[in-house]
Every structure is written in C-alpha cells, then in structure tokens.
Design a protein that fits this description.
Largest sheet: 8 strands, mixed
Helix content: 40-55%
CATH superfamily: Alpha/Beta hydrolase fold, catalytic domain
Number of helices: 10
Distance between the termini: 41 Å
Strand content: 15-25%
CATH class: Alpha Beta
Number of domains: 1
Number of strands: 8
Strand order of the largest sheet: 1-2-4-3-5-6-7-8
Shape: globular
CATH architecture: 3-Layer(aba) Sandwich
Order of helices and strands: HEEEHEHEHEHHHHEHEH
Mean pLDDT: 87
Structural class: alpha/beta
Radius of gyration: 19 Å
Length: 299
C-alpha cells in the first residue's frame, strides 16, 4: 500500500479543513538586502516580506558554496511566508571562510557544523527585528547538510518554532559519509544494490575517515518543536530508509516529527519539476501555524 499517497491526501484534506481566509497566497512581497554579524564576521542576505505573512523562515544551506537561495525564497514568499536567506559564510557577499570538502571530513566536522548553526541563529535574531508581528512563528527550512545544522541551531534557540528538512539526514555524519562513498555518485545504484547491502556498509564499514562524528539525534532528542522531513527513495547521498527508521524511533518516544517519502525522487526533493514536496511543506507549515495560533488564543 502506498503510504506516500495517504500522507499527501492527509495534508491536502488538512489544508481544505482550514478557514480559507486564514492564509492568503500573495504574489506581492518586498525584498530588502541585509547584513548581520555572526561569530566575528559579516553575513549578507535578503529579507523577503509578503504583505500578510502567516509564518517566517530562515533558509539553511546544504554543503555546497551557495549564495542566498533567492528562487526558493521567492517561492516561499509567494505563499505568504516571510523569508531571510543569506550567502553562506565565505561565499558571495558574506565574510568568513567557506569550509569545503577535505580528506576525511568533507566539511561535516563538528566544529564547522556548530559554526554554521550559529550563523543560522544569528540570522534568526536579525530576522526578528524585521518582522512587524513579533509573535509570528519562525522556523528553519533547509536542505541536505542542514539536517545536522538545523537541530543544533534549534536546540540552542527557543525562538525557533518549527523546522522543515528537505533530503536531510537523521543519521551520524560518519554513517552518511560511508554511504555516500559507497554509492559513489552512481545514479543507477539502487538498480544494482539492495537495502540490506547499503545498510550493512553504512553501519559496519571499517572506519577510514578520521574525524569526530556528529549525531543529530542528540539534538533531536532535546527538541519538542514540530519537524517535517521530505525524502526521495532514490537518494544516493543519504540512506533514506535508515533515516526514516531513526525518525520512527523518535516519533515512538513522542517527538512531533513527521516525514513523507517520494518513491520517484532522489536527493533533490525541492526541484521545480515536481512541486509536490514543496506544496506539502507549505501545507504542513500552515497547519502548524494554525495550531500554534489556536493554542495561544486558548491560553
């Protein structure tokens, strides 16, 4: 039975059940360039502000040397979500040094991930000064490597209300690295390998990567904010089913975490060619915002 189908229907029905006037899609938004300080350097970004924002989000990067994610930010702003997106440290107009792939670390060492989490929290602090409605829910939305960064940031920042993670790992950095090197960029990997093969290699491959692993479950265990993960079953960057297994364990412990699996997608679950993951993320944010607003009103 296709659980993905029922998950999608659940989100669609949930959105239909909400009052139509509560969240209005708006193509009108302003864009303002901003600069802010983080750990001794200046980061540069942009704030996109819809006329009537129902939520706000800071975009957290993946591992690549990427500038601010303007196209994705515009997609969010058109849906009524205020956005702050910034050039990654050492990239574009941002100061600092971009830590790229190096032998044995692949820029996922603990020091770098914590530094990037501090950048995200500095962005949240800056963003709040631009929001007219100071009570508006604010979250972190990110891709890939952000699966380690966002939980660290959220665990240190009580101002963060939700998190949305596209193709983000819930396993350790060491396990992810083992899997990535095992698949070796082979787009046909899953045609020639089984889940059992991949899992065995990911869990038990002899350690030849010399760095201290980061385990996102440490931060996730301490969080009580809702989170949504969106996975592609054909992913060759992260072992999706192992990540889902970890999420199911956390859910069984009462964590407000959800996920959706897309059988036809790979690591890029936020592409323009298939808008379903993006649409579901918007519906989910609206639902969580609606629930949060009602909770505050009843207290």
């Amino acid at each position: 039975m296709n659980t993905n189908f029922f998950s999608n229907i659940f989100f669609l029905l949930l959105l239909i059940a909400l009052p139509e006037t509560t969240f209005s899609q708006s193509a009108n938004f302003t864009i303002q360039d901003v600069k802010f300080e983080s750990q001794g350097i200046t980061l540069a970004g942009s704030v996109l502000m819809p006329e009537k924002a129902f939520a706000a989000a800071v975009i957290v990067h993946g591992s690549d040397p990427v500038k601010r994610e303007m196209e994705f930010a515009k997609r969010l702003a058109k849906e009524g979500i205020a956005v702050l997106t910034y050039d990654k440290r050492g990239v574009g107009e941002s100061g600092g040094v971009y830590v790229g792939p190096t032998v044995g670390t692949n820029n996922i060492d603990t020091t770098n991930l914590n530094l990037l989490a501090q950048d995200a929290n500095s962005a949240v602090k800056t963003f709040q000064s631009y929001l007219k409605n100071k009570k508006i829910p604010i979250g972190l939305v990110g891709f890939s490597q952000a699966g380690w960064i966002i939980p660290i940031a959220a665990n240190k920042n009580p101002k963060i209300d939700f998190m949305v993670l596209f193709s983000c790992p819930t396993i350790t950095t060491l396990e992810q690295l083992r899997f990535q090197f095992y698949t070796n960029g082979n787009i046909n990997f899953w045609e020639n390998h089984t889940e059992s093969d991949a899992r065995e290699h990911t869990k038990n491959d002899p350690d030849k990567y010399q760095f201290v692993a980061t385990d996102p479950k440490v931060s996730l265990n301490a969080l009580s904010i809702p989170g949504l993960w969106l996975f592609g079953e054909k992913d060759i960057q992260i072992p999706v089913k192992l990540c889902i297994e970890q999420l199911n364990t956390l859910k069984a412990q009462g964590k407000p975490f959800e996920y959706t699996l897309f059988s036809n997608l790979g690591h890029n679950t936020v592409s323009d060619s298939d808008t379903t993951p993006f649409d579901i993320s918007i519906q989910w944010i609206k639902q969580k915002t609606f629930n949060k607003k009602n909770s505050k009103a009843s207290n």
